[in-house]
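User: Sequence in, structure out. Go.
Assistant: Echoing your sequence, followed by the structure tokens.
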Amino acid sequence: MKVFRLLLLKRKLEDIIIRIFVKIGNDIALKNPLQEEYDIYFLFPFYHTGGAEKVHASLAFVFRDKKCVVLFTRKSHDDGFRSAFQRSGHRILDISAYTDNKKSYWKNLLWRGVISAHINRQQKRPLVINGQCNFAYKLSPWLDRTVAQIELIHSFNSFSSIRIPFIPFYRNTIMISNKAISDHETQYRKLGIPEKFRKNISYIANGVEIPSPKVERNFTGEKLKILYAGRATPEKRVGLVAKIAVRAGQQNLPVEFGFAGDIKAYLDATLQNAGVFYGMQTDETSMKKLYAEHDAVIITSSEEGFPLVIMEGMAYGCIIIATPVGDIPNNLKQGINGFIFRSVNDETEIINEAMHYISILINEKHVKRIMSENNYEHALKYFSFAVFEKKWRQLANELNSEI
């Protein structure tokens, strides 16, 4: 028997056990009905600082003229993008106390019944959008089949296995990188997943605000300024960026590294003087200022889909220095709009290459100007928020004419 069929059978057997909890949750919802109906239910894990969370906030903003509710199902580490979600004007509900409680996991089971009852009882069929949310996958079998469900996938990661038994419930699978699509196609073939589910996959690139007028750069500063922006999670390897910064300092190169995010506490003591630490940047204006003040953006991740920080950096005319992961090689041409490291895993080679690229940017100012202009034009052509908004609204209208 093919793996996919076994996974479906396992899920169906688990549903038999879970059904009683879902039924109790349904009864709770019937006794405590929502006072209004919604066009869209968004289910996201977090609102804390992160590229995925910023994309989710942008997606919620796309439908700012609709009546929507945003459900957060995991405990967030900080308030990072909570205000960005609030700007969409939607109702915000943090249900993580019930759905992210390992000691009382039965509450998670009950809330599958609570939420499914609220959605199924609506007179107007809503749209359900799942942004790589574990709870949303577990909820999906309990929703009426007339309710259109969409999943948004950022990259090929742990969710790529979690979601498999639940893909029959999704009308569309949206992926933000062609590399992610290719990786999932390979997975589908290995697991024996029918072709009809492959056909449900579509590509919609993330969108960012393009500065207008564009940021004018003269690159006349005494130091080359390189920015790292993001989390300090293992796959981001911010420690590797710090090692590059330390090496540049040892070689007395006129370069300054900036770190935006909750970074310093996660670095070894020997790396905590690697640059300027700006801390968490929850204000959009502050982040824009950092992009405008830095000449380049650096990414040393071991895995990615297509980082939002690269899209934003390009929009501000920053030069990109990055590892060849995800869709980065599809958007970054060596020596044209930045530099791509040859290796993903050899840290010594990455550090040595970084020194070479930094030297080029220090010594050849005309190269910086050309790369900066190329990046702005690339962002303008491919990463416009207007295109992102148009494609998502078109998809929503195709799936649910009532929205």
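User: And one key feature?
Assistant: The radius of gyration is 23 Å.
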